[in-house]
Amino acid sequence: MQNIHDYVRQTAAAAKQAFYDMGAAATAQKNAALLRMAELIKQNSSAIAAANAQDMEQAAAKGLEPALLDRLKLTESVVENMCEGLRQVAALPDPVGEMDEFRLRPNGLQIGKMRVPLGVIGMIYESRPNVTIDAAALCLKSGNACVLRGGSEAFHSNMAIAGLITQALRENSLPAAAVSLIENTSRESVGVMLQSADLIDVIIPRGGKSLVERISAEARVPVIKHLDGICHVYIDRAADAQKALDIAFNAKTSRYGTCNTMETLLVHESRAAEILPPLAAKYAAKGVELRGCARTRAILPDIQTASSKDWDTEYLAPILAVKVVESLSEAIVHINTHGSGHTDSIVTESYTDAQTFLRTVDSASVMVNASTRFADGFEYGLGAEIGISTDKIHVRGPVGLHGLTSQKWVVLGNGQTRE
Amino acid sequence: MQNIHDYVRQTAAAAKQAFYDMGAAATAQKNAALLRMAELIKQNSSAIAAANAQDMEQAAAKGLEPALLDRLKLTESVVENMCEGLRQVAALPDPVGEMDEFRLRPNGLQIGKMRVPLGVIGMIYESRPNVTIDAAALCLKSGNACVLRGGSEAFHSNMAIAGLITQALRENSLPAAAVSLIENTSRESVGVMLQSADLIDVIIPRGGKSLVERISAEARVPVIKHLDGICHVYIDRAADAQKALDIAFNAKTSRYGTCNTMETLLVHESRAAEILPPLAAKYAAKGVELRGCARTRAILPDIQTASSKDWDTEYLAPILAVKVVESLSEAIVHINTHGSGHTDSIVTESYTDAQTFLRTVDSASVMVNASTRFADGFEYGLGAEIGISTDKIHVRGPVGLHGLTSQKWVVLGNGQTRE
C-alpha cells in the first residue's frame, strides 16, 4: 500500500477536482442522487447490518464502553432515519447560486453577492456511522465535495455506506470523488488532512471534546467546531413563575447528554425563595443532583455546595449548578464568563430585560422564555444540521446548508474601467 | 518592565472587557467618538507630524527602502484622508443589533438572527500608521474592541494617533481599552497575540506576504487574510473588441502595485489575432512587458516567453502574462488552478458564457465586462474596508463593517418546552 500521506493527499486532490466538476451540477441531479442513496440504503439494509455487526463484534471484543457501542449500532430505526434524512435534504431548497444584495453603483456597475459552496469539507468523526450519510447529504446538496474520515470502530459500516453513496453518485453522473471516504483510520491520516490547507477548505470535527480540541490545536485548515455546551437559564426578577418552572425543568431534564441541556441555573435574588423550593422538588423527583452557591443553600440547605469548578462544567448528567444573582447584569457577566457561547435563555416578562439579555449575552443562541433544548437545526427549521458551532466567525449555532456555503461578490458591468 | 507575555495578555484581557462593556454603547455615542477623533487629529496634526518625522528619521537611518518610507510618511493629505475616513465611518449605518430572517415555527417560537460584533479583533500590520485609525474606526463602529500591533518603524506615529483615540473614547464615556495599542513591537508580542484564542476572536494581518504567511502558519486564533492578488481578465470568443481593449488595458495599467491589478490575460483563440496586436501596442506605449505562451508569441513574436512560473506570479509591476486558450472552460480551469481566488473578469457579450463564468470561477469577486481594479470596499459601496479577504470562510473579498460582525440566533418564546 502507498504511504498514508500520499494516499490522503491524493484523495483530497480528487475531492477538490470533484468540487470543481460539480460546479455545473443541476439541483435536480443532486436531488436525484440523494433520493437514490435513500433507495440503495433501504435495499441494502441487510448488507449494512452485517457490516455493522462486524464492527460491533470487534468493538465489544476491544471492550468499548456501552455508550460508545450504543452510538455505533445501526438499528433499523437509525437506518430508517438515515433514509428519511436523505429525503428531507433532497426536499430543501438548493442554496447554491442564490443572488441577493444587488445595488446599482453611480458608475452603472451592478454589484451583489452569490451564494457558493466552500469547496472541500473534511469531516473527522467518531463512532456513529450515520454521520457518514448525514455529512455526505448536506455537503452534496450545498455543492461541496467532502473527505470523510470516520473512526476505526465504524470502519466496516462506513465502507458499506460509502459504497452505496458512490453508486448513487455514478448513476446520476456526479463525480464519485465528491464524497470520498478515507479508508485509513490511523491518527496519521487525520494529521495529513489537518495540514492540507491547499486541498481542504474547512474541517468539521464531530466527536468527544478531546478529539475536537486536538483537531483545533493542530489544524492549519479553518475549523468549524463545537466544543462545550455550558448552557444557562436565567430566571429574571420579572419572570412568570410557571414559565420559569417549566423551562428550567425542561432545559435540564428532557435529555441529559445533549449539548443544549442547561448546566447552570441562575435565579434573581428577589425570586429565589419563591421559585427554588418547588423547582428543587421537581428535580428531586427526577433524581437530579443540585449544587448551589451559598445563597441557594440558604434556601435549599440539603443540597451540595457548588465549587468554583462547577460553573465551568458541562455535566452531561443529572447534575445542575444553581446560583442566586443580584441583578440581570450579574447574570450576564456570569454567562459571558463561564458559559461556552452555545445557548442561553432568560425567563422574563420585562421587555427591557429581554432586550438587554438578547443584545449583550455573547452566545450563538440567545432565547427569551424558551427552553435551551430548542437549539438545534431541526427545531430552527434548517431541515438538517451538520453540527452546532460555538465558534464566532463564519457561522454560529446550528449549521445547516447555508453554514456550508459562503458568498462571493458578483460585478456586472458594461465596459467600465477605473480612473 | 513586566514581561512581554503578561503585558500582551493583560492588554487583550482589557480589550475583551471593553468589548463586553461596549455591548451597551449607543450608535450616537460611537459616532460622536469617531467625529471627535477626526477633530483631535486635525487639531493635533503638528504633533502627529513631529512624531512621524521621528519615525522617518530613524527609518532613513536604518536604510529602509524608499517604497517603505513612502508608506510610513504621514503627509498632510494622508492625515486629511484619515479624518475624512473617520467622518465616513461615522456616517455609515450601525450594523450591530440588526435583526432579520425571522420565521414563525409551528410551536409558536419566533426564530431569527441578530448581527453582532465578533469580539476582540487583533490587527497586526506594518509601516502605514494610517491603518491605526482605519482599523480603530471600523472596529469601534462595528462594536468590536481591537488590539493593534503596528510595526516598530511607525512606533511614534502610532503612539501619537492612539493617544488621541483614547482621548476621544474617554470623552464619550466609551472604554479606553476598546482600542488598545500594543506598545511593544517585538516579534514576541505578535506570537503572544497569535496564541491567545481565549482573548482574541480574530486576527487580521495587513502587510507583506511574508508577514501574512507567518501569521497564518502560527496563529491559533482564526485569521481573516489576504494573500495574493493574481487576477485575470478573460477575453471570451463573444467579447466586444473595444470593451476588451479598454478593460484589459485598465486592469493592468491603472495601478501596478495593487492587489486587484490583472496579472494574467487569457484570450480565446478565435479572437487572439484580432485583439492582441492593438492591445500589445497600447501596453508597449505604457512600458508594460508582456510574457506569452507559444500561441501568443505566434501572434506577438517579439515578446518574452512565459515560463510555467509566470502563471503563478503576482508581479505588482508593469509585467503581464498572456495566454491563448481554446475555450471558456480552459480559461476557467486556468483561473481556478493558478489564480489566488481574488478577482477575475470575463469580457463577453454572451449571456450563457457570462453565467458560466460567474457560477464556476471560484474567486471572491467575479466580474463581467468590468475592470478587476473595481474590487475594493469603496467601489463596492461598503463605505470603508479593512482589507480584502482571499479566504473562503466567514467573508470573501472586500471586508467592511459587516465582515467584522457575525450573526447569532434569537429565539423568542412564550414558555415553550421541548417534548
Automatic annotation (TrEMBL), chains A, B:
<dbReference type="Pfam" id="PF00171">
    <property type="entry name" value="Aldedh"/>
</dbReference>
<keyword id="KW-0028">Amino-acid biosynthesis</keyword>
<feature type="domain" description="Aldehyde dehydrogenase">
    <location>
        <begin position="306"/>
        <end position="375"/>
    </location>
</feature>
<keyword id="KW-0560">Oxidoreductase</keyword>
<dbReference type="InterPro" id="IPR016162">
    <property type="entry name" value="Ald_DH_N"/>
</dbReference>
<feature type="domain" description="Aldehyde dehydrogenase">
    <location>
        <begin position="8"/>
        <end position="284"/>
    </location>
</feature>
<dbReference type="InterPro" id="IPR000965">
    <property type="entry name" value="GPR_dom"/>
</dbReference>
<dbReference type="InterPro" id="IPR016161">
    <property type="entry name" value="Ald_DH/histidinol_DH"/>
</dbReference>
<comment type="function">
    <text>Catalyzes the NADPH-dependent reduction of L-glutamate 5-phosphate into L-glutamate 5-semialdehyde and phosphate. The product spontaneously undergoes cyclization to form 1-pyrroline-5-carboxylate.</text>
</comment>
<dbReference type="InterPro" id="IPR015590">
    <property type="entry name" value="Aldehyde_DH_dom"/>
</dbReference>
<dbReference type="GO" id="GO:0004350">
    <property type="term" value="F:glutamate-5-semialdehyde dehydrogenase activity"/>
</dbReference>
<comment type="similarity">
    <text>Belongs to the gamma-glutamyl phosphate reductase family.</text>
</comment>
<dbReference type="GO" id="GO:0055129">
    <property type="term" value="P:L-proline biosynthetic process"/>
</dbReference>
<protein>
    <recommendedName>
        <fullName>Gamma-glutamyl phosphate reductase</fullName>
        <ecNumber>1.2.1.41</ecNumber>
    </recommendedName>
</protein>
<keyword id="KW-0963">Cytoplasm</keyword>
<dbReference type="GO" id="GO:0050661">
    <property type="term" value="F:NADP binding"/>
</dbReference>
<dbReference type="GO" id="GO:0005737">
    <property type="term" value="C:cytoplasm"/>
</dbReference>
<comment type="pathway">
    <text>Amino-acid biosynthesis; L-proline biosynthesis; L-glutamate 5-semialdehyde from L-glutamate: step 2/2.</text>
</comment>
<dbReference type="InterPro" id="IPR020593">
    <property type="entry name" value="G-glutamylP_reductase_CS"/>
</dbReference>
<keyword id="KW-0521">NADP</keyword>
<dbReference type="InterPro" id="IPR012134">
    <property type="entry name" value="Glu-5-SA_DH"/>
</dbReference>
<dbReference type="InterPro" id="IPR016163">
    <property type="entry name" value="Ald_DH_C"/>
</dbReference>
<keyword id="KW-0641">Proline biosynthesis</keyword>
